[in-house]
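Changelog entry

Holo records now carry the ligand SMILES as an explicit input line rather than a separate metadata file. Below, a converted record for magnesium ion, shown in the new format.
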Amino acid sequence: MNFWFAVFRQAGRNLRQTWTSQLMTFLTVSLSVLIFAFFYLIYTNMLGAGDRLSDDLRLIVYLEEEPGTEMKEQLRRKIENFDDVEEIIFISKAMAYERFAAQLGDDSDVLADMPEDFLPASIEVVPLQTLRGYNQIKLFSEYLASLPGTEKVQYGQEWVERFYYFTRLLTIVVLLSGTLLILTATFMVAYTIRLTIMGRRDELELLKLVGATNSYIRTPFLIEGILQGFMGSIIGLSALYGLFRWISLHFAGPGILNLFQFNFFSFQVTLIIVLGSISLCSLGSYSSIRKFLKI
Amino acid sequence: MAENMNSDNTMIEMIKVSRTYKPNITALSDISFSIKTGEMFFLIGRSGAGKTTLLKLICNMEVPTKGLIEVAGHNINQLKGNDLAHLRQKIGVAYQDFKLLSDRTVAENIAISMEVSCKKPRAIKQQVRDLLDQLLLTDKHNTITSELSRGEQQRVALARAVANSPRLILVDEPTGNLDAATTKQVMDLLNRSKQSGATIVIATHDASIYQQSKHRVMELQNGAIHSLTKGA
Ligand SMILES: Nc1ncnc2c1ncn2[C@@H]1O[C@H](COP(=O)(O)OP(=O)(O)OP(=O)(O)O)[C@@H](O)[C@H]1O
Ligand SMILES: [Mg+2]
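Structure line, unchanged by the conversion:
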């Protein structure tokens, strides 16, 4: 009880003594958390969108001619040879015509003059959920195109490709901003605590002489680190939440955000970011304590 | 540890202790003596005789080059970490150079030894006021110590040393800058600590404080024991 009272008073003195650099550290930590959380938020939402998109992902193999029953079986075997698939649907020329007519709806009369078999027969291949990577899809489509009797394979190549590269880029950005967070949190905190320790050499020396235990001397600095990590992450995340709300309000409606169903972090993720920031800052203070508070 | 300090009736045991400094300064050589629990013990000698060094050895601020030092039954050079910290909480030291925190108030400086032992804030306040009254410093409670005269700083250092009711009190030159009346206040304070059972070691040049007393006096000369009176 009295120990904690003393330790918190000491931490308060530290904060007061080096408040300018404490403030700088606090702002840096907040900003790093903000930057990291910002990209991470986009990243998780992109992944979510990617999941939803790949639910709909199917490869359409256009065939040169309507396959017979025998041929269908052969093709099915060939496709499954490459990889298990979720589903294989054969679309005959007639079915393709019906679908197209249905899509046109009221305008379907433009088809009146067309022969019912003007659309090619095709196979819709729904790949397994596990076959998500862009390269795998690409390989699969190349394989399908190489099958005899196929004309071409379509799966929205360009779209998938862009999406894939964008996610890759985001992964890198998230990693970079994560590294930035780690560096700033640990180094800035370590630096300010070093500053405090240097500024109070005499006092720390005296504390040892009058019998202060290690924990009595060290705990205030650890508290400082924990506080920096906690405050920094709370402020950083709050700022991000504010930004998120603002964007949601101003870009509401049938825009890209709705398409992506932009969500904020779940409670668990928020907690993990806060705890992560706290541990990083504690680590920073601990390293300074280890280096400059030899007891 | 605290029980140990009371039950054992030898507080300080020094056997063949030497301390040399580089390159070849012999501050202390072959010092052997012991001090009983509850004793008041005077350490005298010319400037440079080794009084301060001896006190520093007792509180483990310095380590001996050779020899054994036991305080309250513990070999003080083998104590580490929290054991050392807890023993030090029971030792009050008034340093010759005071070691006051110059940017803190008198009250904060005196409180520090009690804070470290996690005493209750209210008890700390009370004790600080009592000590300031006894040392005629009542009005200096909130003064920053760098603004005090040397004699005042000396008394603050002493107040800090005795504040936590230590079992062993080491005082280095407690009266060097004081007039006769204030010196008497200081000695009264130390005598009260002795009466409540503390062991007290005083290094001094001030013959007035030991000449008429019946306590033992040890004189150092060039780092060796020159004489050790029997006491009464
Ligand atoms: N850290 C040190 N490095 C080198 N020599 C030292 C050190 N501390 C003390 N000495 C030497 O040890 C000797 C004893 O010093 P000490 O401070 O113990 O004397 P003292 O009896 O307390 O003197 P005074 O009455 O002036 O305070 C002196 O010659 C001093 O120069
Ligand atoms: Mg001295």
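Spot-checked after migration. Chain B has eight helices and ten strands. The pocket of magnesium ion (ligand 2) is lined by residues B 51-52, 96, 172 (CB under 6 Å).
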